[in-house]
Design a protein that fits this description.
329 residues, alpha/beta, five-stranded mixed sheet, disordered N terminus
């Protein structure tokens, strides 16, 4: 299993919905309910698959004078503390044992708040996590076999990314809009999309044959790397203009969530989406799944710091989570 850092979200709504800063990782954990049985099947591997989430709620522009280059402090003399950004939020370790951040005085306050929310998960929700991950692991294996046999022209496996996907999908509300890349099969399953439709797409017999907003609010797959982050941001801005954000009505307030990989985070389209989302305070969550490889390029060739920090440059709060932990996802 590779280690995955998925920017679980960059950009967050000001509205009170499941994609808000407090609940983008809202497939929280239910501490004393058979925790060993709700770990992602891929989590038994050696290294943690991690995601990072960033939720936009940028501060207003500083109206003060722009400092000259002479006024810039020497970074070496004034180091920045990235503890809150770089610390991984985790509720279950790879063996399925509970980890309660509230018992650790050194973890960021946000981690304690999310762990508190996690206590409210019902046992049936945890069983749903396990069921969905197990079913989709089996589906993924079968689809991979079909591709190896030449029955599918292409297949992008979700192997090792089920935890973050299933957990975050369960945290969303029905009215939230999901913009996937091309391996969000578990999310499609949770939202009620017939997974046979996914196979048709990769077999080349259709070109995304479901109506994204008819029932599931799960948009069609995007194979152009990173472009769908712009779609999600634009849709979120449309929600603002339609008055579907920040009303306080949990049945109508909506947000968009966009899933992409570590490689996509280096794309220009993604940088533009971050900028538009931040400036417009769009209700969008950017969920980056970092499996440590952008096709054949390792993360170390893309950045020297955790990908989650990229959100900070756009004024968006961020959280880094263990992507193998469905409750944290």
């Amino acid at each position: 299993m590779t280690r995955i850092d998925s920017p679980a979200s960059f950009g967050a709504p000001a509205s009170s919905n499941s994609a808000s800063p407090q609940s983008a990782g809202s497939s929280q954990d239910a501490p004393h309910q058979n925790t060993a049985h709700h770990q992602d099947p891929a989590a038994q591997q050696n290294t943690a698959h991690q995601n990072t989430a960033a939720h936009q709620s940028p501060a207003p522009h500083d109206s003060g004078p722009t400092p000259s280059s002479r006024a810039v402090a020497n970074p070496a003399s004034s180091p920045v503390d990235f503890t809150a950004t770089d610390t991984v939020f985790q509720l279950l370790d790879p063996s399925g044992q509970l980890r309660d951040p509230r018992e650790n005085p050194d973890v960021p306050e946000l981690h304690r708040q999310l762990a508190e929310i996690a206590n409210d998960l019902e046992p049936q929700t945890l069983r749903a996590f396990l069921r969905d991950m197990t079913i989709m692991r089996r589906f993924d294996n079968e689809a991979t076999s079909l591709q190896r046999q030449g029955e599918l022209g292409l297949w992008a496996p979700a192997l090792g990314q089920e935890g973050g996907q299933v957990g975050s999908a369960h945290a969303l509300r029905k009215q939230d809009q999901i913009f996937p890349s091309y391996r969000e099969h578990p999310i499609a399953w949770v939202r009620g999309v017939d997974v046979v439709e996914l196979l048709k797409l990769f077999r080349g017999t259709q070109h995304g044959g479901w109506d994204p907003t008819a029932e599931h609010n799960f948009h069609i797959y995007t194979l152009v790397i990173g472009s769908h982050t712009l779609h999600a941001t634009g849709y979120a801005m449309g929600l603002q203009r339609d008055g579907l954000v920040g009303t306080g009505d949990r049945d109508t307030d909506a947000a968009t969530v966009v899933y992409f990989g570590d490689g996509a985070s280096s794309q220009g389209d993604v940088a533009e989406a971050f900028g538009f989302a931040s400036v417009n305070k769009a209700p969008v969550v950017f969920f980056c799944q970092n499996n440590q490889w952008a096709i054949s390029v390792p993360s170390s060739s893309q950045t020297t710091v955790p990908i989650s920090r990229r959100a900070l440059g756009y004024g968006m709060p961020t959280i880094r989570i263990d992507g193998n932990d469905a409750q944290a996802g």
